[in-house]
């Protein structure tokens, strides 16, 4: 932004290794978080909170999870939807069977842990296979898991429809899940998960485990000869990634669509999250948020643009146009900036630092 | 080789003479390659090769292209598993050696074609050399508390000393993919040094370098050997460098050992002259 880094000297390694070493960055991020907590729920309309911010935030968690696995550890996965479903179904099972006194975040985290263990199992082939072949193996996870949750009625408490409603749960007397919860409460509940999980992700990627992931991604042979255990490192990435996806899946069911249903986690969802991290930026925590916002909001924007210009287009024309522009945007990004929106943001900052005098 | 690049080694024409200036520099045998035979399908990359490395010495492996030099290093640190033979290292015999065991027992290496982590900064690359020394649990790292935080700072200090030693302070936070070739080689040496190795394996540390860069690299190799007492086994094609730096040289040709001895002995060995140095004789 509009500040200079010159003259900001660090006198200790601790100061240099902070999450945000530049004070202005720190102030900016804290301000964004405070606004998100205190201002947005007050000024945001129900439509914005419930139909825009909520899904974007939840998908950011999933994108963050996939970014850990694909962006940081270099293991391509198409099983995101399956892992999200694992989180959703298991947290439903826990939420409907746990004693009254247990807080609502227990089933959410439980769903995440279940997804993590599933992720480890489907991560096992990653020792032997790489790249597209691994993507096919994780695709198996996607189809197998959805099939499993549809075929085994135990997960939905033998519900006859097979698509049960999310159980309403409360925190301090406020409903935060299910159809009856207010948008503000749901938004804050999801935001809490987003903030904590994003912070943990940032800490992990700047620590030993993050460097091990990136080492495996960039040069697995050298990593192994340094003493990094490939299988253990990859499985940790699978576990943590699936945990994030599982939590996202649980929140998606509990707070956004209010039902637990397989169609919400089909292969389209896996691709959607994959596009998010490609467009947002592989190997960037911030990019996961940019990507989630871009991919989710672009279709909504495209839908509304003809209306703003007073064009009366048929619905099918609009939806076809939407596909075309969307596809073109993704191709444009892949060609012009393969490192995604996060890299564009970084370039913009570097340019602004010198602006208006480029020398 | 230019004298500024190898001044201390210039006074070591033989291992015996070399110990005059620095008594007891070279100690006991720490590594023995015992009858290593390595086949890739029908091709014999190494056949029945044996040699040893003593503590504190600079040991060179030379030979024409395809002689099996790199394969030998790969066998020593467990990346290749030979069909026959074993690696004896610090009192234990391994057949075969495994990469993790090699790394955790202080064998570090650099690669012929730079094998850096291109997406990471110089600092992070060298920090990966400390991975085996970091013991923080996943929770400590995720929350950045306790050892998760203190280890990062403690190891950063050590890495900064390596960075100072190699004079790469200016590129500390640059992604290594953007660095010129010579600097990348230096960062790779830094990553190996960060592990505080007992035995450092260098695979063609000066390949593709100009004279000035070679002098710098020779200086670093001598300094590492002298100040840290690190044992070095290196592969190099530049005969001037090899003869100046090494205490002992082993010569491979077509996968078998041709000669083994001090640079002078090797230089005057008729088999080596015939097979490798290519001097006509009648």
Task: Kindly summarize this structure in a few lines.
The complex is a heterodimer of chains A (359) and B (282). Chain A has one domain (22-354): ABC transporter involved in vitamin B12 uptake, BtuC, CATH 1.10.3470. The mean pLDDT of chain A is 89.
- Ranges of chain B with pLDDT <50 over ≥5 residues? 1-21
Q: Strands across the major sheet of chain B, in which order?
A: 6-7-8-3-9-10
Sheet with the most strands, sense and barrel status of chain B:
6 strands, mixed
Average residue pLDDT of chain B: 87
Assembly context of the chains = heterodimer
Number of helices of chain B: 12
The Cα radius of gyration of chain B reads 19 Å
Proportion of residues in β-strands of chain A? under 5%
Describe the structure.
- The complex is a heterodimer of chains A (359) and B (282).
- Chain A is mainly α.
- Chain A has a single domain, classed as ABC transporter involved in vitamin B12 uptake, BtuC.
- Chain A is 71% helix and 1% strand.
- Chain A is built from 14 helices and two strands.
- The mean pLDDT of chain A is 89.
- With 282 residues, chain B is an alpha/beta fold.
- Chain B has a domain at 29-120 and 185-277: P-loop containing nucleotide triphosphate hydrolases (Rossmann fold).
- Chain B contains twelve helices and ten strands.
- Chain B has helices at residues 7-10, 15-21, 69-76, 99-104, 122-128, 138-143, 147-166, 181-194, 211-227, 239-245, 263-267, 270-277, and strands at 29-40, 43-54, 58-62, 84-89, 92-94, 107-110, 199-203, 231-235, 248-253, 256-261.
- Chain B has a six-stranded mixed beta sheet with strand order 6-7-8-3-9-10, sandwiched between helices. Chain B has a four-stranded antiparallel beta sheet with strand order 2-1-4-5, covered by helices on one side.
- In chain B, a hairpin with a 2-residue loop joins strand 4 and strand 5.
- In chain B, helix 7 crosses helix 8.
- The radius of gyration of chain B is 19 Å and the shape is globular.
- Mean pLDDT of chain B is 87; it is low at 1-21.
